[in-house]
Specification:
The protein is of the alpha+beta class and about 180 residues long. It has 2 helices and 9 strands; from the N terminus they run H-E-E-E-E-H-E-E-E-E-E. The longest helix has 17 residues. The relative contact order is 0.19.
Length: about 180
């Protein structure tokens, strides 16, 4: 019985040693809208993200007021009229890297990942799935993905006056340079 208890304790301790979490506070999320009238682009380079290389759990949080636009007026309309940043200050994603066992986070290389989870924008949560790429190089892990977001799916109303200037689907680019969390 003592041997069984010791074995269970060692397995628990050993599995805890291998749990690896990776973190960034300088992740980059940008979005792009293109219409025949106007192109609109915004960047946020202060995204906080974390993932667990054992379980595949991944999540990030985005402060909406940290998106920067080329024109100050666009940024003002984005925060005040569309995403209502005072009422909904953050967007979040909580999900899973479904094939995390296929990725060797200790070996340099580029790996394709299937990521699925819940994206919350403007207080509305939707299931999304996408294909991401994880590039492991010298202990750093670069996670990249692109998704399409329809503002109407997240109850973001675009006034008729500017409706033709904003694409129905925005292309969102996600780029996170993760470091091991110690």
């Amino acid at each position: 019985m003592k041997k069984l208890f010791l074995l269970v304790a060692l397995v628990g301790l050993f599995s805890g040693v291998h749990a690896q979490k990776y973190f960034t506070r300088t992740g980059n999320i940008s979005f792009f809208s293109s219409t025949s009238i106007e192109d609109i682009e915004a960047h946020n380079k202060t995204v906080t993200a974390i993932f667990d290389s054992q379980s595949g759990a991944i999540q990030f949080a985005v402060t909406m007021k940290s998106f920067h636009f080329e024109k100050a007026l666009m940024q003002e309309h984005f925060n005040e009229n569309y995403v209502e940043s005072d009422q909904f200050p953050k967007s979040t994603f909580k999900g899973t890297i479904e094939n995390v066992k296929d990725i060797d986070f200790k070996k340099d290389g580029t790996y394709t990942a299937n990521v699925k989870g819940k994206l919350t924008i403007h207080g509305v949560t939707k299931e999304i799935s996408t294909q991401a790429t994880f590039t492991v190089k010298g202990g750093s892990i670069l996670g990249e993905a692109k998704i399409k977001v329809n503002p109407e799916d997240y109850d973001i109303e675009i006034p008729g006056v500017v409706r033709e200037k904003i694409a129905k689907e925005l292309e969102v680019t996600i780029s996170m340079d993760f470091k091991e969390k110690k």
